[in-house]
Amino acid sequence: MAFEQQIKELAEKTAEVLGMGGPEKLAQRRTEGHLNARERIDYLIDEGSFIESGRFARSNRPEVKHKTPADGKVAGFARIANRDIGLISNDFTVLGASSAVINMKKIKHVKQIATKKGMPLVFLGESSGARMPDRMGSAGRGIVAQDPTEYQRLRESPWCSALLGQCYGSSTWYSAMSDFVVMRKGAIMAIASPKVTSIAINKPITAEELGGWKLLTGVSGLADMAVDTDEQALDAIKQFLSYLPSNHLEAPPEHPVPEGSDAITQTILDILPESRNQVYDVRKILKVIADQDSCFELKERFGKSISTVLARIDGKSVGFIANNPLYKGGALDADAVQKVISFMVLCDSFNVPLIFMVDVPGFLIGIEGEIRGMPGKVINWMNAMTQVTVPKITIIMRKDYGQAYINMAGGKNADEVAVWPSADLGFMDPAVSVNVLYGVKQSDDPERFAQLKSEVERDTSAWALAELYEAQHVLDPRDTREWLKRTLEIHRQGMHNGVGEHRLKNWPTSY
Prior knowledge:
Layout: H1 4-18, H2 23-32, H3 37-44, E1 51-52, E2 73-80, E3 83-90, H4 101-117, E4 121-128, H5 137-141, E5 159-168, H6 170-176, E6 180-184, E7 188-189, H7 194-201, H8 207-211, H9 213-218, E8 225-227, H10 230-242, H11 282-289, E9 296-298, E10 306-313, E11 316-323, H12 334-349, E12 354-360, H13 367-371, H14 374-387, E13 392-400, H15 404-407, E14 416-419, H16 430-438, H17 446-457, H18 462-467, E15 473-474, H19 480-492
Parallel strand pairs: 3-4, 4-5, 5-6, 5-7, 6-8, 11-12, 12-13, 13-14, 14-15
Antiparallel strand pairs: 1-2, 2-3, 9-10, 10-11
């Protein structure tokens, strides 16, 4: 056979690369119950769709070249749900997937192609950080910072990151730049490892304390979701991408509407309490308004007094921003504000209409909020919202008090405003208003208190707002889904085939 020796050599080198860090390291991963870098790709993508880029790349340093198959990062292009993506899967069995000259060239190439061709980009992270001694000293400075746009995000296409083990260095930076971050419980994300950090701060610290899932999902908010297994993390990436277009110049994909989606809306009155002081979980409301089983919540454990949920209505993607009285009575704190801004940026960047579901007593006031710069955060929210160009629809369910009325897209901040008959548009809770305005407490003078409270409540009803044409519609809550279907249909037409102007495309990815 012609070229027999060359073909044999190709087969041998291919087998060597696919052997990754060797049978012992791969066996250890199986024992731990974790997928390796190539298994993760196989699970994530459409079968047979992967084209690897740089399979035979190796370190440029002679002393380690022999033990760096694919230089520790498996990169290329594939399809998810028949749509092209770019991806990088870090191979921890090869020098801890450390970042070095050659593998960073691979990442740069895949990023550039994905951006140029309008494909989502997926990072499957697990890395020990920068490879040493490659990046040490003056010679190392000649390697880093050679790409001035390496950390630029203009949101041309969605980026997803999975944290699937120890994640330091590039895995951390690309996660902080991504639109969606999912982590496997037990994974760690930080600037540097616990060992390095402990030495730097002269204090022992555990990996979980430094960058575990509870910290990232509940305190810093840098991760959107935590799951138990590699497979669940990869499933979450597939689901997240199903709501978004491949790039910012397309409308999101449409999906079939599950049977029973319309009928279940009739149960909404069983969920909403009549008393405005009784709490409930707003996510149950969203689930009966949206297409069945289509709700996908982001940052569930962070800023819990508001829920940010991707979903579908009539098969089309929407983003819900919904006050959740189950936590802090729905009052908005600094974390909730940060969460809403990042969600508005996501939806506006990728042409997903926003639906504000309002039941808010206001912003959570106090010393902690002032220390964290709440006035600036509130105005950041308003600044971002003025730049949103996707349709904004507001539904006032119950309370809508004070400045929060404006931030939750009240008045002309929305394209359409609807109220339920249960809406309450006071500046603050009526009982508190009587206290503040008249200095009267219920315990001091019940009769006078009741009279003043009735006067305060007089002009705060849904009907008063509708009479002023500050709300265009008063809805039976059970009709909300049908109204949203038609209203969204109308307002989507104002965009260019469902595509907005993306004024928030370079808004910071973390704040």
